[in-house]
Amino acid sequence: MSEKLSAGMTRDEAFALLTAHNRDPFHIEHGETVEQTMRYFAREFDSENEEFWGIVGLLHDLDWEEHDDDPKNHTVYAAELIEEQGGSPELIRAIQSHNADYNDALPKPELQMEKILFATEELTGLIGAAVVMRPSKSVMDFNVKSLKKKFKDKRFAAGVSRDVIREGAAALGWELDELFDRTIKAMQSFAPDRDTFQAE
Question: Would the pTM count as exceeding 0.85?
Answer without folding.
Answer: yes
